[in-house]
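Bench log, entry 3. Co-assembly request; chain sequences pasted below exactly as received.
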Amino acid sequence: MQVDDMILVSVDDHVVEPPDLFDRHLPSKYRDIAPHVVHKEDGTDVWQFLEFEVPNIGLNAVAGRPPEEYGIDPTSFDEIRPGCFDIEKRILDMNANGVLGSLCFPSLPGFAGRLFAALDDKDSALALARAYNDWHIDEWCGTFPGRFIPLSVPTIWDPETMAAEVRRVAKKRCHAVTFPENPEPLGLPSLHSDHWDPFWPACSDEGTIVCMHIGSSSKLVTTAADAPIDVMIVLQPMNIVQAAADLIHSPVFRKFPEVTVALSEGGIGWIPYFLERLDHSYRVHKAWTGADFGTKLPSDVFLEHVVLCYISDPVGVQLARRIGIDRITVEVDYPHSDTTWPRAPERLMEEFASSDLRDGEIDRITHLNAMRFFRYDPFAHHPRERCTVGALRAEAIGVDTTPVPRGRRFPQRQGIKISDLSPTA
Amino acid sequence: MQVDDMILVSVDDHVVEPPDLFDRHLPSKYRDIAPHVVHKEDGTDVWQFLEFEVPNIGLNAVAGRPPEEYGIDPTSFDEIRPGCFDIEKRILDMNANGVLGSLCFPSLPGFAGRLFAALDDKDSALALARAYNDWHIDEWCGTFPGRFIPLSVPTIWDPETMAAEVRRVAKKRCHAVTFPENPEPLGLPSLHSDHWDPFWPACSDEGTIVCMHIGSSSKLVTTAADAPIDVMIVLQPMNIVQAAADLIHSPVFRKFPEVTVALSEGGIGWIPYFLERLDHSYRVHKAWTGADFGTKLPSDVFLEHVVLCYISDPVGVQLARRIGIDRITVEVDYPHSDTTWPRAPERLMEEFASSDLRDGEIDRITHLNAMRFFRYDPFAHHPRERCTVGALRAEAIGVDTTPVPRGRRFPQRQGIKISDLSPTA
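Structure output for the full assembly:
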């Protein structure tokens, strides 16, 4: 297979919500409480909501800027690449990267949608969440049919309305929902409680995949307050192993055997080691801990329920058959700093070329698995031959993907430490 | 290579200290303050020290018992296999497992030796630490020359005396010292501070390897208070990735380029993924974080300084060449619950047989690397042909290794959760 022949569906990108987010989908009675963008005196744009100011952090929208300008400072809409928030420009950026389909995680409400929970009046909170989901499904994803996999945010404060919202948006063909990798650090009951029991059957019934994105517990992985921020950057993705271990030992898959969970941005190179550790611990300790996976091993149960996702993962690709070709999907992570945009096809192919994967296996990893797990059918909208990397890039002639320096609004900070950060998302 | 031809040096086992630990090596003026064993009314044996009672936790001494009897309850000397604490019996258990050499981590003082720090009078604390090290080196390791790699505990409360103790015991041919995987959770300055600067050059000068054992930060890996204990059991070893990321981004290797660190019980299957993540983060973010590894990649620096250790690790063995054959050592973990005793040779060989490693590579992993990094020369004491699995097992004829049920002192607890544990070590 050549790079131009690949078909790429990315199950992890991000939308930076545009200022008109709530203009068309929120009943007018809630208009006054909706988050709105304020342009500050320092030149940054922030979302104002209740007593909060939610900045667009630079590191969340760095595609198309040189690494020297990456950072954790707030930014403004005129400093970030328009593809971050403008759907017409986003499609061009996807085409330039040869990407057919994209699932976009939220920025403003957080990965777990918990921003709206700050409202005491839960009717208002629900109205905002619904308006957000309608904007996301009808506008962001609806403008270019067949190009996006819609993803709803949960009304995380109430499992009953979560279930109702999963069912409501499923009627609009949205079959993916975000959920925190661990609810406990958010002050919510853990996966081991029965608190979430109304939510899971709604996902099973509607064929909705539950996307747990790295960092969605809002718990930063820290070693020491004075550790350089690089420690956190390295560890944050790998920390998904905690969610994986928590999930497999929770009652979720036993009680709701049709539930499927994606470990978004979780990577795959650690999976064989993790599964061996999982089975080893089970064999050694089940006699006294009471762990019980019936006639199966925990690794079997894990691979029956969990979808794996990676951006770039050389050793993981080499181990792909050992993991299970049918569980693996790819991600681009546009416009975050780990993104492979605009060279995702080349990066992916380089890793495939170092493996002995066959074309049929590559197709499963790059798009067929994503289509099945996310109930996404782009070929109903676009003939397959128009969906390849080569065909899409041909439509993006003239799209400039060279990094654009925009300068720094704030002086570059030296030696940023973990203690300089506060939890986000 | 056949199982009987292997030579095994285990760089991670554990000693359960016997009651006479402080009888012969502590100046008499400190005798009254030394920890001593008390046989309690409930039948358990505990060490009494100041206002503390330090139990021997069952899970720390389960070799030779059936898994049904594993648990976190306190135990007594007459319930645990004598090889845990009796050096004559230990040698027989090593022989029965075909193990030539063993490095034994402490139990009573904790992996980081911090028990003694509880004494306000630091002269007394130092006296206890020295006595402990003398017992360990002269008695535990000295009784059977050439069979043990001595390991000292640090006077963790004071880097100056730590350095002096490293130099003192080096004169007794002890060239390994424990150090916490992360000092900060112990209330001590992190690896990023200059607090430890007196310690590292002592290690460099004396050729002393620094052993960071999993769990030695005393920080349990928790996801949720009501998570079953299995979650912690699975995650605790994998959590060493945090220490690895912390260490490589600390100034230690830059300031003290001769320092070598062993990630004890850290496993190896996660290493390729970690190193790729490390280099990726560096390439993407160094321009703004200021991370600086000179002309090298962080993975190069890591592999120049870190020694890797595994008990059983099928995928890791398959990836051994990718990791670096010269950095890998093996462990038995006797008498902890992850131990492969008494079938370590068979387990190791099974994994080697599934790889394409050659005999010379297996020799490096099973003993040559350990001999080099730990400055251990068993062949000065025993001819090589007497050191193989087959030769040692021939000396253990009659040693009964079948699991011995001893019953439970306390009723088995159902559904033990993370919240039922308190930090140990």
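Residues 185 and 345 of chain B are 36 Å apart (CA to CA). The first strand of chain B starts at residue 8 and ends at 14.
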